[in-house]
Amino acid sequence: MRLCVFTEPQEGATYDDQLxxxxxxxxxxxxxxxxxxxxxxxMGEDGGxxxxxxxxxxxALAVQTSRIRLGTLVSSATFRLPGxxxxxxxxxxxxxxxxxxxxxxxxxxEPEHTAYGIPFPPISxxxxxxxxxxxxxxxxxGTPSGETFSFRGGHYDLYDCPALPKPTQIPGPPVIVxxxxxxxxxxxxxxxxxxxxxxxxxxxxxxxxxxxxxxxCESEGREQPMVLSVAQTVACGRxxxxxxxxxxKIGKEPPIFGTPDQVVDQIGRYAELGASRFFLQILDLSDxxxxxxxxxxxxxxxx
Length: 303
Fold this sequence. Notes:
With about 300 residues, this protein is an alpha/beta fold. It has helices at about 15-30, 55-65, 80-95, 110-115, 125-140, 185-190, 205-220, 240-250, 260-270, 290-300; strands at about 1-5, 30-35, 70, 75, 100-105, 150, 155-160, 175-180, 195-200, 225-235, 255-260, 275-280. The strands form two sheets. An eight-stranded parallel barrel has the order 1-2-3-5-8-9-10-12, surrounded by nine helices. A two-stranded antiparallel ribbon has the order 6-7. The protein is globular, with a radius of gyration of 19 Å.
């Protein structure tokens, strides 16, 4: 099981806060540092000092880290046009030496759209746009050097695009698609994604979602293996009291909660479903000891 640290900077984190967590993530031996892509607080606080842009942040982290994977879980297709997004991600991939991953979703949080003047179309249109964005981004990255890329989708039309710059990773950075929608989400994952993620769902719901995406891969005739992953909030403590204190600090008892042995068992239930990557949502970014504990007392005992 590969462990990634997953953060929510829109809840109140400067770039320096994120850099400290990313550097400790690397020092502790975690697989990657991922962040949400939101412009407005979701959990009820004021969100000060304000949002930081996901891809600006990851570009900076690309040159200030050396080993960990970097990415979004997930960027919203409503925030950026697919051509410029492909350019941004490819550039950050170059800056990182080929360590970037793109999580991309349809977008769901309407208040941040209305707050910042971002159009928020109905869900069917958002999924249509997501489908076109995935096709365009993968198409741009996969176009051979010296050739051009064109696309007619209805929402986005590209004409003789030079498909530059090229990312360091060939044919492009891994793409993550997530969600538990019964039809369109597994179909899009099977067609375009390297990884399918289920976030904040219990084991039984996650199992059902994995079965749907496996069926979609079979229908698509896909031969490339699909990475299956999970995202869950964590509060771990050396003792029950320490775990409880961490839970109280974030205002809830999360699904992954308790002493290291308990956390190993909880993560192991998802591993039994076929998950090989776990995104640990860390809400208190000031608590770097939390990362040390998970790295030393949880990670070595996972399957």
